[in-house]
Design brief:
The protein is an alpha/beta fold. Helix content is about 45%, strand content about 20%. The protein contains 13 helices and 15 strands. The radius of gyration is 22 Å and the shape is globular. InterPro entries: LysR_HTH_N (IPR000847), LysR_subst-bd (IPR005119), WH-like_DNA-bd_sf (IPR036388), WH_DNA-bd_sf (IPR036390). One of its GO terms (molecular function) is transcription cis-regulatory region binding.
């Protein structure tokens, strides 16, 4: 049950075809098929079945692919931990961030960190809330920047930064704002901001017209164009507010306090702690204190200073 065979199965699960899996792994299609066939023989249960001219994972294959993903993630995490322990300033760091954090919080942090630690091997995954927390759970990310960790995720909250969600709109639309009637522009389902907007409206039993746009930038642009009001991080609309293209709407119960969290796995690597120490020197970031998140995430605390 080699690493290469596990990677072939996970690639097949992710891409949905032998050809696409082979392209991802830079191997031949026959190599992917042979790897999956070998796993099937070892496990004694079918992992794939024919579907038309292609294949799909069986129920057993999908279950096993989930475990294979975690095994591969643990192997990568182990490599990162070993290399970081030897020299934190030259180790790998796999970051994952929700879109708003990647757009508004990370760029300056990454630029200043890169200037100080140019030999750290940085990788960044950007995606919706569900994706980044799944990456942490599967050991595919060393540090996540997002909102509060969901219940059941084994994680260590290392730092927090204030983040206000506000309702904004074009000045003319904001002047006539009515919670139940004014249209809203929203992110796609799966976004943390979308979940907050849905919960906010549901709590007030409001069902205004909604327009779903596919990115944070599109939502902000749509709000500025007068398509509707939007619930966004204040960090994301500073320029638009300063220029007068958007104004903060006086909506009931606003603003919402949704702090950013820097979250690692149960055993952060030395290179991860090096980045967190750098992050704590940036404006607004503070070490996590014990509190409600401790029970949700598994453990919290101030990161130990990394060498260097």
């Amino acid at each position: 049950m080699t690493e290469a065979r596990l990677r072939a199965l996970v690639a097949l699960a992710d891409t949905g075809s032998v050809r696409a899996a082979a392209r991802r792994l830079y191997v031949t299609e026959s190599a992917v098929s042979a790897a999956v066939a070998a796993l099937t023989r070892e496990l004694g249960v079918p992992l794939v079945s024919r579907e038309g001219r292609g294949v799909r994972l069986t129920g057993a294959g999908a279950v096993y692919a989930g475990y294979a993903r975690q095994v591969l993630g643990l192997l990568e995490e182990g490599r990162a931990a070993a290399r970081g322990a030897a020299d934190p300033g030259r180790g790998p760091l796999r970051l994952a961030a929700v879109t708003t954090a990647a757009d508004q919080v990370l760029p300056e942090l990454l630029a200043s960190f890169r200037a100080r630690w140019p030999d750290v091997e940085l990788a960044l995954e950007v995606g919706p809330r569900r994706q980044v927390w799944s990456s942490l759970a599967a050991h595919e990310a060393d540090l996540v920047l997002a909102g509060r960790p969901p219940a059941g995720v084994a994680a260590t909250v290392l730092a927090r930064r204030p983040n206000e969600l506000v309702v904004v709109g074009a000045p003319d639309l904001a002047a006539g704002f009515a919670l139940a009637r004014t249209p809203w522009v929203m992110r796609e389902p799966g976004s943390g901001t979308r979940a907050s907007a849905d919960a906010y409206l549901a709590e007030r039993e409001a069902a205004p017209p909604r327009l779903v746009l596919g990115s944070n930038g599109a939502v902000i642009a749509g709000a500025a164009a007068g398509l509707g009001v939007a619930l966004v991080s204040r960090d994301a609309v500073g320029a638009e507010l300063d220029a007068g293209r958007l104004v903060v709407v006086d909506a009931p119960g606003m603003p919402l306090d949704r702090p950013w969290h820097a979250v690692a796995g149960a055993a952060p690597t030395a290179t991860t702690l090096l980045f967190v120490r750098h992050l704590l020197g940036a404006p607004g970031w503070r070490p996590a204190a014990a509190g409600p998140d401790a029970a949700r995430a598994g453990s919290t605390g101030t990161p130990t200073a990394a060498p260097g």
